[in-house]
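Researcher: We're teaching a course module on how sequence relates to structure. For the next exercise, students receive a sequence and then see the predicted structure as tokens, so they can try to spot secondary structure elements on their own. Here is the exercise chain.
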Amino acid sequence: MTKKNEIHFRKAETSDINAVWEIIQQSIERRRKDGSQQWQNGYPNLQTVESDVEKGFGHVLTVDGEVAVFVALIFNDEPAYSSIEGAWLTNGEFVVVHRVAVSENFAGQGLAKKLFDYIEDFTKSQNVLSIKVDTNYDNLAMLKILESKGYTYCGEVFLAGGVRKAFEKVLI
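Model: And here is the predicted structure for the students to work with:
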């Protein structure tokens, strides 16, 4: 008998791409319905997902074996972060959080918040003590999550054709 609601965090695999792409499309539509401009210009697309998985950036949260949440975690590499209107908390190594997307099947269950706990544990396990993330000014759901998880607003970055709010959390 399998345990109900068994949650795992792992690297995304090639076999996850179709499920992840479906989740990204659901998230694009959810952003649109919420009135957000984020992800409304053809990005992210299927090639973005394939690249994330191929490069080892893609990670998934599964619930009872079903892909529920996707995220791209990238170490020390976000060119847009080199010029911030404001200031980062640290200048050392960091993990960038991009493309957080939750399946409609699991929306409203707190999995995005839980994802950030896994991201923090993963980041610490790599001996990296800082997480940086940006989001659209009108992505209220993500702004609330970042606030609830203790991320500090650092300023604005220009990314994906627009100005984004930038946040950092130091894991010490």
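Model: If you want an answer key for the exercise: The first strand starts at residue 7 and ends at 11. The mean pLDDT is 92.
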